[in-house]
Amino acid sequence: MENNGMNGPKKAFTQWGLPLGLLNAAIYGLVYALNTKLLVSLWLGLGLIALNGGVFIWALVQTRKAQGGYAEFRDLWGVWLGAALGLVLVTTAFNALLYKVIDPTLSEQVQVMAQEKALEMMESMGTPQENVNEALARMEQQKGEDPFSPLRLLMSFFGSLLLHVLLGAIFAAIFKKNKPLFAPSDEA
Fold first, then answer.
1. Do the domain assignments include residue 134?
2. The total number of structural domains that make up the chain
3. CB 176 within 8 Å of CB 72
4. d(CA 59, CA 13)
5. Would 138 be classed as within a structural domain?
6. Domain that holds residue 91
């Protein structure tokens, strides 16, 4: 994946991003089919973050390996962003399909389950009742708002892309390895 203009990001989009997005959608769809309570599971969220992070880092390592062990920042950043675009595009489309077409009532169910989970967590951590009451009041204000409305899905799409711009820059800086300016010669 040498520096061929947009070849790196385009290839990453199809090689890493789309398959990862489809895998995320399949996992989320399976969880929906098996037990909707798992949709608000912290462990599911952390597991998907670990899976996605691992695949993104693997893509950077493979890109550098394909370039003879060297890769510039912009090449790696482009790969990360191409893969991120594929992932975010597929997962956003899947969420729109799931919450607006397949099960329009799921949004309310998830909101209620998330509120219950938040209250459980606050109580288990010994949060003062005053703070719990404030959180309950805020949750009540949010009832009726659709967290999966088209506008919120769009905001989530661009927010996720922004996060990946930042993460991509950090990891591209970590994994970059420039070719030496002067190649060592075998003559001595």
1. no
2. 1
3. yes
4. 11
5. no
6. 7-103+153-175
